[in-house]
Design goal:
Number of domains: 2
Radius of gyration: 20 Å
Number of strands: 5
Strand order of the largest sheet: 1-2-5
Strand content: 5-15%
Shape: elongated
Largest sheet: 3 strands, antiparallel
Distance between the termini: 32 Å
Order of helices and strands: HHEEEHEEHH
Length: 149
């Protein structure tokens, strides 16, 4: 239970800090983003009928993309590790803009393969084809711990 509480507190902390970082990254939108900081607060957990936990992510605005000056800094950092970096690699970052997202619910834990199979069978939804999983480890849930393909 303490792991869940720590995870919940981490979600609340990162929700608040993401607005602060967005303000730092987008000084030109400071007033608009500052209004969002006032709205950030701990949101309640929602327990679904299958006992999986969800957390409500509050609505808000964030800065998406980069300015030309930011991309020049990104290029400089990239060239520290790869001399072949080119400025055009960052073209999909233009233009920087404010994006508003309505509030939404997010699962706290990943959906396991078992739960996904239950969903597919219950709804008739088409399977997502993933040919990389051909062992029993894929069906046992957590692929990140000790799985090798």
């Amino acid at each position: 239970m303490t792991d869940r509480l720590l995870f919940f507190l981490a979600i609340c902390f990162f929700s608040a800090t993401s607005v602060v970082f967005a303000m730092h990254a987008g000084e030109e939108h400071k007033e608009e983003l500052l209004g969002n900081l006032q709205q950030v607060r701990a949101e309640p957990l929602f327990v679904q009928s299958d006992n999986s936990l969800m957390i409500r992510i509050p609505a808000g605005t964030f800065k998406m993309g980069s300015s030309f000056e930011e991309n020049k800094r990104h290029l400089k950092g990239c060239r520290k590790y790869d001399k072949s970096c080119e400025l055009w690699w960052f073209n999909d970052e233009y233009p920087d803009r404010l994006i508003f997202l309505d509030s939404y619910w997010l699962d706290i834990y990943e959906v396991t393969n078992e739960k996904y199979l239950e969903f597919v069978l219950a709804t008739g939804h088409r399977f997502a084809l993933d040919q990389t999983c051909d062992t029993d480890k894929c069906r046992d849930g957590n692929l990140w711990q000790g799985a090798s393909f």
